[in-house]
Write a structure and sequence with these properties.
11% strand; 581 residues; 64% helix; alpha/beta; six-stranded mixed beta sheet; single chain
């Protein structure tokens, strides 16, 4: 945990050192009070026969000194609270920022290996646990060593006869804490994994609520959640049961130490040679009370550390992930045109020989309107994922503008390729801002033009109450499927890319609207290479060329007229879709 914190402490070193110094000073000031009290009893009040003589000057001086120590300790406590809060929350902010930045650079391989619910937990719950642990642990972590060292030094100086009791009990307390930590740590890691499962189950139930209700599966989902929740309860009981032993053990050891001190001090005081031990015993018991409170706080710290260590492990796992997609941020290359070439491209999702694309070679000229068709599982979308470098090819090369796409910076590559997906996502913002999300610097006139090309302008201005200023719900659920697709298409067009990819993004459009959109794309985006992936022959039949995929291989490339006669796969799809028309 400390290694992780050290990495992100940079901007908050000042807060860390001020908090550390103030708590150390506060602890030393508190420790001085019992010592001053013992001095007062020994030097301010001296026995004279059967009476006592009070040295007023000594008593007043030591009393004022103790009051000043108390005031200074209070001021140090106030400063400590301020700076430890800034430090703990600041470091949490830095770790969360680093995690989010790392997440944005994850490849799809990385995202495939970790569930969204787990990523969400690591960005929120795990970091909150770490920050809170730092906040509540800072005081005991600095106070306890000061208390222990100072107590042992003072004990050794003032009363070596009594100090050996402390030298036995303190190591016992430390050993017990260590053993419990070793036992409990893996159990807290298990708890955090169960939290991931709980988040995943809850998310699925909310996102798929229509499916759950339509299949009358409410009871099934409830039972599934109950099972996960029960596992969480049992795991928490197991971990916390062991953790709960820590404080009673510490109390047993320290209360045993108190009894030992009282017994030994009383026994030795019977000897006139050790009569002064009575005064030192009072100081010892005061220190022991403070030590007990500090140790109890330290036990709580260890409880929190057990849980935080599990969170730290998960956060480090996320930060240590290295994407296999290597960026070339300093590349001077710019995408000059939309010419595309695949050279003997093969690809496997698991870096083995189970290729989902096999020896694919093809050329697409700038400005062409290209269709990609194939049965489900033929790797149509994989072709596009490779073009965008969501994944890197296993073998072969992909060229855009005459250069291998790995020679471009990822930013340069992707800003010149825009995609409109079958299941588009819209943000909880206005229609205007959702479209401008593709190009924040676009003027309103450019937005309107993109919307007209996508056949979205009319329904936005006529059917939506506030037109382009209409607020959309998250995911755009207050629009129909066809409306969402057209808004997202407008967003893709507004990027003014060299290559425009439409991944089954006409699926929710009626034939008339689809025909208008395609005509607009051909007439208004002549210099942009347009790639349309579709299951429907009607969507791609008028393409300049059509690529037919079958189980990761290219079956044929040609026009609709050629393929409908010469390619058996295309011919079958065409005949089935046109049967009865």
């Amino acid at each position: 945990m400390f290694k992780l914190l050290y990495k992100y402490i940079g901007p908050y070193k000042k807060d860390f050192f001020i908090a550390a110094i103030t708590i150390i000073i506060e602890s030393l000031l508190e420790l001085s009070c019992p010592y001053l009290m013992a001095e007062m009893l020994e030097k301010g009040i001296t026995p004279i026969g059967t009476t006592y003589e009070i040295h007023t000057d000594v008593v007043v001086f030591l009393s004022v000194t103790m009051i000043l120590c108390g005031i200074l300790a209070f001021l140090c406590g106030v400063l400590f609270a301020k700076y430890v809060a800034r430090f703990s929350k600041g470091v949490g902010y830095e770790i969360r920022t680093a995690e989010y930045a790392k997440l944005k650079n994850y490849s799809f391989h990385n995202l495939d290996s970790v569930s969204a619910s787990s990523l969400l937990t690591r960005l929120t719950s795990d970091i909150n646990i770490i920050a809170d642990t730092v906040s509540v642990s800072f005081r005991p972590l600095f106070r306890a060593p000061v208390m222990l060292i100072a107590t042992l030094i003072l004990a050794s100086i003032t009363s070596p006869e009594l100090s050996w009791v402390l030298f036995i009990s303190i190591p016992l307390a430390g050993l017990s804490m260590y053993l419990i930590v070793i036992y409990v740590k893996p159990r807290f890691i298990k708890i955090q994994k169960i939290v991931d499962s709980m988040n995943r189950s809850t998310k699925e139930s909310i996102v798929a609520i229509k499916t759950v209700k339509s299949y009358v599966k409410e009871n099934y989902e409830e039972e599934k959640f109950k099972e996960i929740n029960e596992n969480s309860r049992k795991s928490a009981n197991n971990a916390m049961g062991a953790n709960a032993l820590m404080m009673p053990i510490q109390e047993l050891i320290l209360y045993g130490t108190t009894v030992g001190l009282l017994y030994l001090g009383g026994y030795l005081a019977l000897d006139d040679k050790y009569a002064s031990l009575i005064i030192n015993l009072s100081m010892f018991l005061t220190y022991l009370t403070q030590l007990l409170a500090t140790t109890q706080m330290l036990a709580n710290v260890m409880l929190n550390f057990n849980r935080a260590e599990a969170s730290v492990t998960r956060v480090k796992e996320m930060l240590d992930v290295n994407s296999e997609i290597r960026d070339n941020p300093n590349s001077p290359l710019v995408v000059e045109d939309g010419n595309i070439e695949f050279k003997n491209v093969s690809f496997s999702y698991f870096n083995d020989k189970n290729y989902v694309l096999n020896d694919v070679s093809l050329k697409i000229k700038q400005g062409a309107f290209v269709g990609v068709v194939g049965q489900t599982g033929s790797s149509k979308t994989t072709l596009i994922n490779l073009l965008l470098r969501f994944y890197d090819v296993s073998e072969g090369n992909i060229l855009i503008g005459g250069h291998d796409i790995r020679e471009y910076s990822i930013h340069e590559l992707r800003k010149n390729i825009s995609v409109s997906f079958q299941n588009p996502f819209l943000f909880n913002d206005t229609v205007l801002n959702n479209i401008k999300w593709g190009n924040k610097d676009a003027t309103d006139e450019e937005v309107y033009e993109a919307a007209k090309i996508a056949c979205a302008y009319d329904f936005i201005t006529n059917d939506l109450d506030d037109g382009f200023n209409t607020m959309l719900s998250e995911g755009g659920t207050n629009l129909s499927g066809g409306q969402r697709q057209r808004v997202c298409l407008a967003r893709a067009i507004l990027m003014k890319p060299k290559i425009l990819i439409l991944d089954d993004s006409f699926s929710a459009l009626d034939r008339i609207t689809e025909a208008k959109v395609k005509e607009n794309l051909k007439n208004n985006l002549k210099d942009i290479t347009k790639i349309v992936i579709s299951q429907k022959i009607s969507t791609i039949k008028d393409s300049d060329q059509i690529i037919v995929l079958e189980k990761g291989f290219i079956s044929s490339i040609g026009t609709h007229a050629d393929l409908a006669i010469n390619d058996p796969i295309y011919k079958d799809i065409n005949e089935i879709q046109n049967e009865g028309l």
